[in-house]
From TrEMBL:
Pfam family, one: Ribosomal_L29
Annotated family: Belongs to the universal ribosomal protein uL29 family.
Database matches in HAMAP family: Ribosomal_uL29 (MF_00374)
GO cellular component: ribonucleoprotein complex; ribosome
Coiled coil: 4-31
GO molecular function: structural constituent of ribosome
Name the record gives this protein: Large ribosomal subunit protein uL29
InterPro entries according to UniProt: Ribosomal_uL29 (IPR001854), Ribosomal_uL29_sf (IPR036049)
Protein keywords: Coiled coil, Ribonucleoprotein, Ribosomal protein
GO terms of biological process kind: translation
Phylogenetic lineage: Bacteria, Pseudomonadati, Thermodesulfobacteriota, Desulfobacteria, Desulfobacterales
Length: 67
């Protein structure tokens, strides 16, 4: 999911996506630890998704505080 797509979502949807991505990250870490994860690059990709969502949320919060 790209940043432009994330910026079009409202805060509730962003927080839901963040929760889903963090849950997926936890599942991938667990599978990696038990040697069941075939594509370890997916760990890096999901971390980037979490960071993107958190960035958009933080930008919205700071923008709201300035107004």
């Amino acid at each position: 999911m790209k940043s432009n797509e994330l910026r079009s979502l409202d805060m509730n949807e962003l927080e839901a996506r963040l929760k889903d991505f963090r849950q997926e990250h936890m599942n991938l870490r667990f599978r990696h630890a038990t040697a069941q994860l075939d594509n370890t690059a997916s760990l890096k990709l999901i971390k980037k998704k979490v960071a993107r969502v958190m960035t958009v949320i933080q930008q919205r919060k700071s923008k709201g505080q300035d107004a």
